[in-house]
Automatic annotation (TrEMBL), chain A:
Residues 375-490, 761-875 form the ABC3 transporter permease C-terminal domain. The chain crosses the membrane at residues 97-121, 367-388, 419-441, 461-487, 513-534, 758-781, 802-828, 848-865. It is found in: Cell membrane. It comes from Chitinophaga rupis. This is ABC-type antimicrobial peptide transport system, permease component. Pfam families: FtsX, MacB_PCD. The keyword Transmembrane helix applies. Keywords: Cell membrane, Membrane, Transmembrane, Transmembrane helix. One of its GO terms (molecular function) is transmembrane transporter activity. The keyword ATP-binding does not apply. Its main location: membrane.
Automatic annotation (TrEMBL), chain B:
It comes from the Bacteria. The keyword Repeat does not apply. Pfam families: PadR. The keyword Magnesium does not apply. This is DNA-binding transcriptional regulator, PadR family. Residues 20-88 form the Transcription regulator PadR N-terminal domain.
Length: 882, 110
């Protein structure tokens, strides 16, 4: 008998039967199964007996055993919900402190959730305005160069578009769109830069871009026709009619053949004007490469398959085309893929060709969304933990109510419902509050980065409101889940007998675990912020190998720099001037192909074209040789090069001695150049790149120019204004585009600062939520132990003793969190994040512990204030009221 | 007509209930059937049949007293109703009639 007792049938299977079985049948059915189980334990052992039990539990799931869903139940519940809301709101009012901790905590964390939901919905609303959106695809090129994976490109060749139009069956429309049309439009005296694409008439049949004036079928047919958006037309022609007018770009006249509605904000392609693709064909008619299969760098091809088209067949036809075209190519192999329109903005990262068109529109990879979602989830979960903790801790006070409810016939499920309703109620109140927070935070998020402004609006839509409410209900359910389970298990007898406090405290471990999890997450957040911030500051102040202080880079926008140089020379605040082709160290690259003696051994080196003042102005250190000697006027005449040490190393020039390298000849982009100087290695790229070979050649008038002006001024704004007015005289069309070098470096790493801001914000929320939760717990513990404290005091416990007694547990919990959180953060940075930065400084102990110290300080202040309050209380007052 | 006819297994179950008298509950019925038919009778089948017989009104059932075995669950005891008894007698008499029609000569070689 004793042995039998030890084996019980699996309880979940029993509950499963109870759940599905008709109430009339359930008892003897389970009884029968139990009897069989007991018998099986004897004969074939407990393990197989359990298995058979489970199998039987499922076997009895038959039409005659399953209970019918009862409508009556539903009505009873509806009636009861009123009662639940009433008792819940009374309970809320009674415990103002705990209610406000719960509501504020949930509201703060939910505001993050709301922002994220709004953001995701905005990202997902991209391109949905297209009536045929579901059917539209973009061609993706998967290129392999010389057997090396080149990656997936959003662009393809013009030939692809034409071949698809000719050969593929089951396609309604194909449109080729070529980027980037960017020129200055001249109408009379009015000059404005216009940006857009070269496109085919079919684009209007694929995308829903309504035409206000002009015929969409023919507007983009003839060469030199242009379709303007409403805004662009108004900018160029004011209130006058734009249709049929001429616009001059450079030396060519274009006719306005249409005016269309502005491109919707949520479109992945945006432009001010479309120029007929036939124009591009005319302009490039001498370029044999223009329609090559491998010229896949700046054209987009959009497809609209016919309705009910067989996509598999279209795919195989695309593969056939690619196969045929690849036959003629030796080094480059291209596969064609289809990317649904709705997966362009939120989807896989695709490559854009270097130096080619910028990204067509905003893009967010789902991974980033998942990470952000995960972080927000942690913060929300933390607030839910507060709710769970405080509700269970204060269970004693509500046990009578539950006991009574159970005594008059409430079932487990009804008690569960009651507490879920209560939690949802609180989360709904929190939703109201968090909505206001959302309105406050929204502009902050949008202004966080310039890309944000271009990407999202976060405007309220019906879908958004519905998801907010759904989100709030979900949060309520998560928060109320544990208390609901806990309270539903309370037995009526115990609850009413008032000895139940013992039972309520059985969940101490659970509560402690929740506090530890909460604080671990908080500490990870805050130390990540601290470490990230320190690393970011290190990056900004990193010694790139040259000076960047007080250097203003002025972009010439196609103008010749000489006039402005003369103007600048006259300003006393400008102490030095130089010209360069690009700004290095901020993620700009310009490459060239270099060879030394061995004509088969070539390497990619990074280059810049600089004048003779560039090196001294930026303080480049030369290890051998000197500055440029000759001053060539044309790119043809350039004969000298200054290289860095990596070049010598790569080609083994001068066999380790830089001096010997002077006078050696190398071939850069097919031109023979003499090395006149060797620079110390410096950071040409961003500092997450390893230092590679770099070569500087002389800047000539044929290059685009950036003026580097070293400025010494006490009144920077005034100096900048002077420079800007000088610019205005030279180029009235383009806005003054200048940036301090240090600012450019900051911008180059702006994604880090955005990330740190976001994580910092989240850690601020996490820490305030966790602190509020801890505060609630401390208040509760001291309240319930007030009598104990008084008795101890009477017996002679000192003040210090009492504070130690009350605070000890919390400090232990915090220490456990710290022991988990700090190593995790440290390892995360050292092994995951910082491996991407070959030149990083190691994580220091100070920043690791700074966050911990802050959290501990807040916690100690809270614990201390409450325990001191309790310890100071007069035992007479406390003990006399019984 | 369909409702009043007994299937073979139904008849066996009814007979077992009658034979077990006061001890007729699902597991006992199952065991008894297994013993007599010398094949393993599944509880699920017995359960379903008992349920069907009760629906037809051939048996009635009530819950017994709770005991320590079976995890404290009560047994459901079955007994025949008048209709049940009639159905059994009808089935038996029908068979008897048929038996009587068979000349004894046939059994000679057995």
């Amino acid at each position: 008998m004793k042995e039998q007792r030890q084996h019980h049938p699996p309880s979940w299977a029993q509950r499963f039967i109870e759940w599905y079985c008709k109430p009339g049948l359930v008892e003897d059915l389970i009884g029968d199964l139990n009897e069989y189980f007991e018998r099986n334990v004897q004969t074939i052992g407990p393990r197989r007996a359990k298995l058979i039990y489970v199998i039987d539990a499922f076997k009895f799931l038959r039409s005659y055993t399953v209970r019918k869903p009862i409508l009556v139940n539903f009505f009873i519940n509806r009636i009861m919900i009123g009662s639940y809301i009433k008792t819940s709101s009374r309970n809320l009012m009674r415990n103002k402190l705990f209610s406000s901790i719960n509501i504020i905590g949930l509201a703060i964390s939910m505001s993050v959730g709301l922002l994220l939901i709004a953001f995701v919905l905005d990202m997902r609303s991209y391109d949905r305005f297209n009536r045929n959106g579901k059917r539209i695809y973009r061609i993706t090129n998967i290129a392999t160069f010389k057997g090396e994976q080149g990656g997936k490109y959003a662009t393809t060749s013009i030939k692809t578009g034409k071949l698809i139009r000719e050969k593929i069956k089951g396609i309604e429309e194909v449109a080729i769109m070529r980027s980037n049309f960017s020129q200055d439009a001249q109408v009379g005296d009015n000059i404005l830069p216009i940006k857009g694409f070269w496109a085919e008439p079919s684009l209007f049949r694929i995308f829903t871009f309504p035409m206000l004036e002009g015929n969409p079928a023919t507007a983009l047919k003839d060469p030199y026709s242009i379709v303007l958006t409403e805004t662009a037309a108004r900018k160029l022609f004011g209130s006058q009619d734009a249709l049929g007018r001429m616009i001059r770009f450079d030396t060519l006249n274009y006719q306005v053949t249409g005016v269309m509605k502005d491109v919707p904000f949520f479109s992945h392609i945006s432009f001010e004007a479309l120029v007929s693709l036939s124009t591009a064909e005319q302009l490039n008619r001498n370029d044999k490469n223009f329609e090559e299969w491998t010229n896949m760098w700046s054209n987009f091809v959009y497809l609209l398959p016919s309705e009910n088209a067989d996509m598999a067949s279209i795919r195989s036809q695309l593969n056939a085309i690619a196969k045929e075209e690849n036959l003629a190519e030796k080094d480059t192999k291209i596969q064609l893929g289809l990317l649904p329109l709705y997966n362009i903005v939120v989807g896989e990262n695709l490559r854009q060709s270097e130096g080619g068109p910028g990204s067509l529109g905003p893009h967010m990879s789902p991974v980033v969304l998942w990470i952000l979602g995960g972080l927000a989830f942690i913060v929300i979960l933390s607030a839910c933990f507060n709710y769970t903790n405080l509700s269970i801790a204060r269970a004693m006070r509500r046990l009578k109510e539950i006991g009574l409810r159970k005594a008059i016939g409430a079932g487990k499920s009804q008690v569960r419902q009651q507490f879920l309703v209560e939690a949802i109620m609180i989360s709904m109140i929190a939703l109201l509050l968090s909505f206001f927070l959302f309105l406050v935070l929204r502009p902050q998020l949008i202004n966080l980065a310039p890309e944000m402004q271009r990407t999202v609006k976060l405007e309220l839509t019906p879908a958004m409101v519905v998801s907010f409410i759904g989100f709030s209900v979900t949060v309520g359910v998560i928060a109320g889940f544990m208390p609901a389970i806990f309270f539903s298990k309370v037995s009526a007898i115990n609850a009413l007998r008032n000895v139940s406090s013992v039972k309520a405290f059985r969940h101490v471990t659970l509560r402690r675990a929740l506090v530890v999890i909460q604080y671990t997450a908080t500490l990870i957040f805050i130390t990540t912020t601290a470490v990230g911030y320190v690393q970011y500051k290190n990056i900004l102040s990193f010694d790139l190998g040259f000076d960047t202080e007080n250097i203003l880079n002025i972009y010439m926008e196609g103008n010749k720099p000489d006039v402005l140089l003369n103007e600048l020379r006259e300003m006393p605040q400008v102490t030095a001037l130089s010209r360069s082709f690009i700004v290095t160290g901020v993620g700009n690259y310009w490459g060239g192909n270099m060879k030394y003696k061995d004509s088969h051994d070539s390497a990619l080196v990074m280059t810049n074209h600089v004048d003779e003042n560039y090196l001294p102005l930026h303080g480049y250190k030369l290890v051998a040789g000197g500055n440029f000697i000759s001053r060539p006027a044309t790119a043809e005449a350039v004969s000298e090069v200054i290289v860095n040490e990596q070049v010598l190393k790569r080609f083994n020039i001068g066999s380790g001695n830089p001096r010997k390298a002077i006078g050696e000849q190398i071939i850069l982009n097919g031109r023979k150049l003499t090395i006149v100087g060797v620079m110390q290695d410096f950071h040409y790229g961003k500092i997450d790149n390893l230092i590679g070979p770099v070569a500087f050649t002389f800047w000539t008038q044929e290059d685009g120019a950036i003026i580097n002006a070293k400025i010494q001024s006490d009144d920077m704004p005034a100096t900048l204004a002077r420079i800007e007015s000088a610019w205005k005289k030279i180029d009235p069309v383009h806005p003054f585009n200048a940036e301090f070098y240090d600012k450019a470096i900051e911008d180059a790493y702006s994604e880090f600062s955005t990330m740190i801001k976001i994580i910092g914000f989240l850690s601020l929320l996490a820490i305030s939520i966790a602190s509020m939760g801890l505060f609630g717990m401390v208040v509760f513990t001291t309240e319930t132990r007030l009598k104990e404290i008084s008795i101890r005091k009477v017996m002679g416990a000192s003040f210090g003793n009492l504070v130690y007694l009350l605070g000890r547990n919390f400090i232990v919990l915090l220490s456990i969190s710290a022991f988990i959180a700090l190593p995790v953060t440290y390892l995360f940075f050292e092994n995951v994040v910082l491996t991407n930065f070959p030149y990083h400084t190691p994580v220091q102990v100070t920043e690791l512990f700074a966050g911990l110290l802050a959290v501990l300080l807040i916690a100690i202040i809270m614990i201390g204030s409450q325990t001191m309050k309790a310890a100071r209380s007069n035992p007479v007052e406390v003990l006399k009221s019984e | 007509m369909k409702g009043s006819n007994l299937g073979e297994f139904e008849e066996l179950v009814l007979l077992t209930i009658a034979a077990l008298m006061d001890e007729a509950y699902s597991v006992a019925i199952c065991d008894e059937l297994s013993r007599h038919t010398e094949r393993s009778v599944k509880l699920g089948v017995v359960h379903a049949v008992l349920n069907r017989l009760e629906e037809k009104g051939l048996v009635k059932s009530q819950l017994g007293e709770a005991t320590k075995t079976r995890g404290g669950k009560r047994k459901r005891f079955y007994e025949l109703t008048m209709q049940g008894k009639e159905a059994l007698i009808r089935a038996k008499s029908m068979r008897d009639q048929l038996w009587n029609m068979i000349p004894s000569l046939i059994w000679k070689n057995l």
